[in-house]
Amino acid sequence: MKNQWMRNALSIVLLAVGLGVWIFLPWYGVLAVAVGVAAWLLATRTGRLALAATRIGIASLPQRWGASSVIIVGIAGVVGVLVAMLAMGEGFSATLKQTGSDDTAIILRGGSQAETNSVIMRDQVPLIGTLAGIRKDASGKPILSPELSQIVNLPTASTGEDANAQFRGVSEAAWAIRPQVKLIEGRKFNVGVRELVVGQGAKNQYRGLDLGKKLKLGNQEWTVVGVFASGDAHDSELWTDIETLASAYDRRAYQSVTVGVDGKPGFKQLTAALAADPRLKLDAMTTRDYYTKQSTGLTTIIKVLGTVIGAIMAIGAVFGALNTMYAAVAGRAREIATMRAIGFRGTPVVMAVMLETMLLALLGGLLGGLLAWSIFNGYSVATLGANFSQVVFQFKVSPELLWSGLKWALGIGLVGGLFPALRAAQLPVTAALRAS
Asked: What residue stretches are annotated with the ABC3 transporter permease C-terminal domain (predicted)?
């Protein structure tokens, strides 16, 4: 009894390890496995017998369609939820990664990880403008934009409940530093006037941000004079003149300075110049690196959560597949016994049941992937970013996620079909024929 228990435990451990390897196997590894199995099926007598037995099983699927649909629907649910969860992380990460570039850099107080805990004194900005590596405009002035980030509460469009929005104060140079930001409605704000422009994502996420609307922020009335689109995290922001914002919220220092740099060589010059100047205890990173780091934490949490939820659902789908396939084997006992009696050995029978289950799993995976893509791809949502403000982004159902979902589906089919397949191969021929 103890030895049997040990063998069962070892089998489960080996199966779990094999599944883990399968899930993380790259596409060329999966292709190699598929080519190897196909070659075995076509080139060997046992393989051809397995194919013949599989055709018999597939031909009887219409008579067992109700039970077989349990496998397909269960696996489709697992794949759909898994892909949807991972698509959320993929979309959030892609939005923040698109926000930055290697041609711009953000300067923060030394040791600061985000704008919210950074302070840059006003008298440091002219010194920053003299540093090497910063691009110059046509008139020879350094391209830099000191900026402030103020968190404000705005009612959401869906529920009317207050949510954090990022109200950014920028200089005129911000438009040149971020050429992807384009006005699609109205005009730019005027300097020294309580006017603002809003990202298209923020306009859709919050109430009262239509062109010409007035809203109260910082106990003052502001007018929406423009709407912009950027295709990145700035779509979730409100922009105004930095000095107007500083006056409204009594901010006597800046939080960051965004500058244009001459590519990677210019960025290296900038970081070296910052390190060499004892008056500037500041750090710089490319905006691409900055926004990528901002997305890392939440993306990791979403991926882990999605994988855990997918794994829990996968266990349920495995048990559903086991029950269905055990019932199918029991219902086909006479058919399987007849095949065994006319020369089909254990291996072809095992492979036939496995291939049938894997086919149903593949159909479930395709269905789940199709549902996830049709429902969630491009679906807009908002979540709290690293600056404690809402970031509007879209789910991104990529081919890589769909491929991962298919591998999960086939893994579930593998486990769900293995033990019923072994049961079919061990079915006593004479007993099965008499019982039928």
From this structure: 308-428
User: How do residues 111-132 score in pLDDT, each as one tens digit?
Assistant: 888 888 889 999 999 999 898 8
The per-residue pLDDT for range 371-391, each reduced to its tens digit, is: 999 998 888 777 766 565 677
CA distance linking residue 19 with residue 159, whole number of Å: 43
Which of 250, 280, 310 is where one domain is finished? 280
**Which pTM value belongs to this model?**
0.76
For position 348, what pLDDT does the model report? 76
Answer yes or no: do 56 and 126 share one domain: no
- Helices 287-331 & 399-425, crossing angle to 10 degrees? 20
Q: Is the dihedral of CA 420, 423, 429, 435 positive or negative?
A: negative
Cα gap 128→270, rounded to integer Å: 9
pLDDT at 419: 75
Euclidean distance between CA atoms 40 and 347, whole angstroms = 12
Q: Which of residues 228, 248, 280 is at a domain's end?
A: 280
Give the span between the Cα atoms of 354 and 1, in whole angstroms.
Answer: 28
Q: Are residues 128 and 227 in the same domain?
A: yes
What's the chain's Rg over C-alpha atoms? 30
Is 342 inside a domain boundary?
A: yes
